[in-house]
Write a structure and sequence with these properties.
alpha/beta, Rossmann fold, 5 strands, five-stranded parallel beta sheet
């Protein structure tokens, strides 16, 4: 039995290696929700591609400007961008922001929720534009809707977020607004955007029950339902990415999205020509080949 399992595993690795070499690569960057791109339903549907998923649990859109965030997401994403042979880059972030960080920051710093919201949108938008400027074809997928119900007291994520007093409906409305704003920004930048809100919202205005995880302590969508939903709608934006003009040259050539640490006297939010550090990059390859991150 052990030999049989070992042979199957070796065969799986062999086939994966062949698939990786023969199929065009698509890089996926995101938080823990992005692991859905590794589901067998999605992989089978997109078998013409090799899906390279770089997911960072707890990653936030707002934390993309902070190189010292707890999750180190921006550094991990940068390494993935530097090493990939992909031209298309799928990005899915924001659930940790609309479900917790935006509300947390508004309360901590005594600012309007709208101000924290706009800052997060700006940071996420800058990250997407920077990826495009580096020669990639970014594709943005909408942020999943909140699934943690009011008064929930189970699960690690629910415990981390229990200090947020916003109701599930308020968090849902913020997520829908976030997705609309990101879709508007992406359209202005000619970046394909997959908005799944229209097929994810139920009659009561909250997430559809069929998308909920069977484990009430898990804030992710049910894997099979989410994978099927994604498989049904992802083709259009991947085709749109083929039509999106890119800068000439190897995709990994260009600046890193990792910001400098701002010193004293530098204005918050300002990004001049020297706002991002340049790093030496390897020559073009011959083969064509959570929740606390937003804290300062």
């Amino acid at each position: 039995m052990k030999v049989s399992e070992s042979l199957k595993e070796n065969l799986r690795k062999l086939l994966l290696g062949v698939h990786k070499r023969l199929c065009p690569e698509v890089l996926v960057l995101g938080d823990s929700h992005a692991t859905i791109f590794g589901h067998k339903i999605v992989r089978l549907h997109l078998r013409r591609y090799y899906l390279n998923v770089s997911s960072v649990p707890g990653a936030t859109a707002s934390g993309l400007e902070n190189p010292e965030s707890i999750t180190q997401a921006v550094q991990k994403f940068d390494r993935a961008l530097l090493s990939t042979r992909a031209k298309k880059v799928i990005i899915m972030l924001g659930e940790n922001d609309t479900g917790f960080i935006i509300w947390y920051r508004a309360d901590k710093y005594k600012i309007p929720v709208r101000e924290a919201f706009q800052k997060t949108v700006a940071t996420y938008g800058h990250f997407i534009r920077d990826i495009k400027a580096r020669g990639f074809s970014p594709i943005c997928v909408s942020t999943p809707l909140p699934t943690i119900q009011d008064g929930a007291d189970w699960g690690e994520v629910a415990n981390l977020r229990k200090g947020v007093t916003a109701t599930q409906r308020q968090r849902t409305e913020l997520t829908l607004a976030f997705n609309r704003e990101m879709e508007r920004m992406c359209r202005a930048e000619s970046v394909p955007y997959l908005n799944l809100d229209r097929v994810s919202v139920g009659e009561d205005g909250l997430v559809k029950p069929e998308l909920l995880n069977s484990d009430p302590a898990d804030h992710h969508y049910g894997k099979r339902a989410f994978a099927q939903l994604l498989a049904e709608h992802i083709d259009g934006v991947l085709e749109d990415a083929d039509l999106t003009p890119r800068r000439s040259g190897h995709p990994t050539q260009g600046r890193s999205p990792i910001p400098h640490r701002r010193g004293r006297g530098s204005g918050a939010g300002q990004r001049g020509a020297g706002g991002y550090r340049d790093r030496k990059r390897p020559p073009p390859a011959a083969h064509p080949k959570t929740a606390r991150e937003g804290r300062s």
